[in-house]
Structures are given as structure tokens and as C-alpha cells.
Specification:
The chain is of the alpha/beta class. It contains 18 helices and 14 strands. The longest helix has 18 residues, at 417-434. It is elongated, with a radius of gyration of 31 Å. Keywords: ATP-binding, Helicase, Hydrolase, Nucleotide-binding.
Length: 445
């Protein structure tokens, strides 16, 4: 590994590399084509970033192309790769749909060494001759199983047709396997499979189920929203249901953001920014948000609608518990849905009996504990009647003080309703009489 990378890794506090990062380093540097599999949240982006970047030549044009299935994942990958590329004076350009094409074409004229994009936009530029890939050395497919499906696979094929060099390295990365016969037929090469999914990595993801009628699921979200330290990604099967729930939460004044296909890139970027910064408590999304998104220390993922396939459940669940942090996946539904969840998940599923409590991070838990044990202010005044009762567990001085206060109040003479009204009327009359008069004259009166 490049020494500059080692220094930055040490400064960031990485104690050790993940199994997938170790396994792919040498084959990637050797120019080998491979199919790399690893669980979600195990650092696959850095697994191909660290070995490849030091092999590139500064100023030699477009040498690496990284494809991602969504704008969000492409932009996230761009941020990660750019952080390390800057150490080597390498330029990175994002080519995603929904962004300004003219701006992208202007930056292409500077011939960045690393391109990261979505298949639709890259295919559009490549087939029109706006993007030249004559110098390409490596093609990375992040979430390859998703990229090699249906229309997206056709776009990848169009991009590959514009690449003239038969020796280009192709690396497939993902958490679920691709059909290697399809990949071999498309790219005309043999792939070495590196499977790190069975490697023992500390995983702290808990799977829970909350029995909920269909018409009560929105109310469950409102209940969860009452917890200060909670943030969650909420997954839906349809945009229609997502919008219904978004309208309900907006009416209940619950801070949330929506991430759906079809929104402009700026709208989707703002939704993610609000969620990452904590302005939004919930991020409502379809499976467009299930792939690769990294939300730091996200405590909870909610399946508002159950997915149809175990792979989809796996990718949704992978948004929490990343890099061995703790996380929870919660699913709503009836008894039939509970049986389906147990089929989708090859682990224990706990059935909740009430509203669970969540804390986002150890720091917040410590802070909360400190607040509970903080000593009471010696001169604190009672703020409501409930504080006037004598508590058997309170300190002796505090009990005495409260008892005396209660006794004084009991000794005050009671007045009738007519007397109180007369006092109020007299005070109002005095106020109107003194209105506009100098202070000294008021005092004399």
C-alpha cells in the first residue's frame, strides 16, 4: 500500500483492514479481473480504492471507470475516492443522470484520471462520442448484480462496446453474487471469484418484528418519532404508499425526507444531506436507497413493507450495523408477515411486545446518564404541585423543605370567589387610572 495512504489510515484510526480489503489488494494491483463478494458495510469502496489509485499515472487521462446503480451511490463513491485521490494529485469526475451535462462535458476536457457514474449518463456520453475511453485500464462495477440486470445491463454493454482495449481489467463488487456466465459473455473474460461473505466479522444487527395492522403502520412511525435519539431509514415497496405516509408524517409535524426515483438530483441530494445532518428523523425511500448508502451510525432500518426477496432484505438491512457497529432492523406486519420474515432472515427474529427504545451512539447514552445523576440545584424552586409531595426516597433536607412549603400554603387563609373577583376588579381599575401617569404620581396614588 502507498505510504501516504498508510499515514492517512493511521490518522483516521483504522485498527485493521477488513477481510475483503485484504483479499482483493494484490489481484487488483496485478490487473486481474475478479468477482468480489462481501457483506454490506465491510468497506468494499475502499477495497478497490486503495490498491488501484497508486497504479494510475497523473495527467494520462481517463484510466478508471466506476459504475454504480444509483445517483446517490455514485456521489457517495465520488466523495470517498476523491478524499484519497487528492493525496496523489489525481482528478475525479462524477457523471450522473440528473446533473448538468454541459458542466460535466467542460470538466471532461481536463481529462480526469478517475470517472464515477451511473450507466445511463455514461452510456449516453460514450455512444455520442463525448466520452472517450481509449485509455481505460480498469472498469469497476459496484453492486454488480444490480448493474447486470435488464435495461441497466444493456447500458453497461453499450459502454463496453466503446472500449477498444481487450486487456481492460474488469472487477465486479457486491454483497450478492452475479451470474458469472452472463458476466463472462458480456465482457469475454474469466473472473476469479473472491468470496469473503463467510469470513467471521463481528456483526451486531438485531432483527425484530412489531405486530401491526396495515392501517396502524403510520401510527407506529409516529410513536417511534417521539424518541429524541432515533433516526431511521424507512423502506416501502411502492412510491404511492411512501407519499401517503409522507403526507401523514408532515401533518403530524415529524421531520422527514423522501428519496425516490424520478426526483431531481438536487432534491435527492438535499434529502440525504438533511438526513445525514440530523435535520430529518426519517428517510422514506424505496429500494433505490437500499444499495450501498452509508449513513454513519444509523441505529435503525424499518421495513414498512416487507421485501419479496431475501437479497432485497439483506441490502436494506445493510444500511445499519455497518463496520461492526450495532443496529436494528424492524419489520411491520401481521402473523403471516412474521412467518415470511423468518423465511427471509437466517437468524433469530424477536417479536416486540411494546415500544422499543433506541439510543444513537454511546456518547449520547453517557450524556443522558450524566444528566440523570447530576446533583439538584440547592435553591431550586418547585415548579408544579406534584413536586410539593414528600418523597420517601428524597434526601432529608429536601423532604423537610417540601413539607414546610406545603404547610405554609395550607395555613394561608382561604378567600371566596366573590372576594377574588373584587380583588381583580380593583387591580384593573388602579391600572387604568395610572395609565400614562409619571411614576412618582403613581406611587403617591
Amino acid at each position: 500500500m502507498d505510504e501516504r495512504f498508510k499515514e492517512k489510515i493511521a490518522a483516521k484510526g483504522f485498527s485493521q483492514l477488513t477481510p475483503i480489503q485484504v483479499a482483493v489488494a494484490k489481484p487488483l494491483q496485478a490487473g486481474q479481473s475478479l468477482d468480489a463478494l462481501a457483506p454490506t458495510g465491510t468497506g468494499k469502496t475502499l477495497a478497490f480504492t486503495w490498491p488501484l489509485l497508486p497504479t494510475l499515472t497523473v495527467g494520462d487521462g481517463e484510466q478508471v471507470l466506476i459504475l454504480a446503480p444509483s445517483q446517490e451511490l455514485a456521489m457517495q463513491t465520488t466523495r470517498v475516492v476523491r478524499e484519497w485521490a487528492q493525496l496523489l494529485d489525481l482528478k475525479v469526475l462524477a457523471l450522473t443522470g440528473g446533473a448538468n451535462v454541459k458542466h460535466q462535458l467542460d470538466r471532461l476536457k481536463k481529462h480526469p484520471e478517475i470517472l464515477i457514474g451511473t450507466p445511463g449518463r455514461v452510456a449516453e456520453l460514450a455512444t455520442k462520442g463525448k466520452l472517450k475511453l481509449n485509455r481505460l485500464r480498469t472498469l469497476i462495477l459496484d453492486e454488480a448484480d444490480e448493474l447486470l440486470k435488464d435495461e441497466t445491463a444493456q447500458q453497461v454493454d453499450q459502454i463496453w462496446d466503446t472500449c477498444k482495449d481487450a486487456g481492460i481489467q474488469v472487477a465486479l463488487f457486491g454483497a450478492t453474487p452475479v451470474d458469472l456466465t452472463v458476466a463472462a459473455g458480456l465482457f469475454d473474460r474469466e473472473f476469479e471469484r473472491i468470496d469473503a461473505r463467510d469470513t467471521q466479522i463481528p456483526v451486531q444487527i438485531k432483527h425484530v418484528f412489531w405486530l401491526t395492522a396495515n392501517d396502524q403502520r403510520n401510527k407506529r412511525l409516529r410513536q417511534l418519532a417521539s424518541q429524541k435519539n432515533l433516526q431511521a431509514m424507512v423502506f416501502f415497496n411502492t412510491t404511492k404508499q411512501l407519499k401517503i405516509t409522507a403526507s401523514f408524517l408532515a401533518h403530524e409535524h415529524v421531520a422527514m425526507a423522501t428519496l425516490v426515483r424520478g426526483d431531481s438530483s438536487s432534491t435527492r441530494e438535499r434529502a440525504l444531506r438533511d438526513f445525514r445532518s440530523g435535520k430529518a428523523k426519517f428517510l422514506l425511500t424505496t429500494d433505490v436507497g437500499a444499495r450501498g448508502l452509508d449513513i454513519e451510525a444509523l441505529p435503525l432500518v424499518i421495513n414498512f413493507d416487507l421485501p419479496s426477496h431475501s437479497d432485497t432484505y439483506t441490502h436494506r438491512a445493510g444500511r445499519t450495523g455497518r463496520m461492526a457497529k450495532a443496529g436494528t432492523v424492524m419489520s411491520f406486519g401481521n402473523d403471516h408477515d412474521l412467518r415470511r420474515v423468518r423465511q427471509l432472515v437466517d437468524t433469530q427474529v424477536e417479536v416486540l411486545k411494546g415500544l422499543p427504545r433506541f439510543n444513537k451512539g454511546e456518547h449520547q447514552q453517557v450524556t443522558k446518564a450524566k444528566k440523570k445523576t447530576a446533583p439538584a440545584k440547592p435553591n431550586a424552586k418547585p415548579v408544579n404541585s406534584s413536586q410539593l409531595r414528600v418523597d420517601e426516597d428524597a434526601p432529608e433536607k429536601e423532604q423537610t423543605s417540601r413539607a414546610v412549603t406545603t404547610k405554609k400554603r395550607k395555613q394561608e387563609p382561604e378567600i371566596s370567589r366573590h372576594q377574588r373577583l373584587a380583588q381583580v376588579k380593583k387591580a384593573k381599575h388602579k391600572h387604568s387610572k395610572n395609565k400614562g401617569r409619571p411614576l412618582k404620581q403613581r406611587q403617591r396614588s
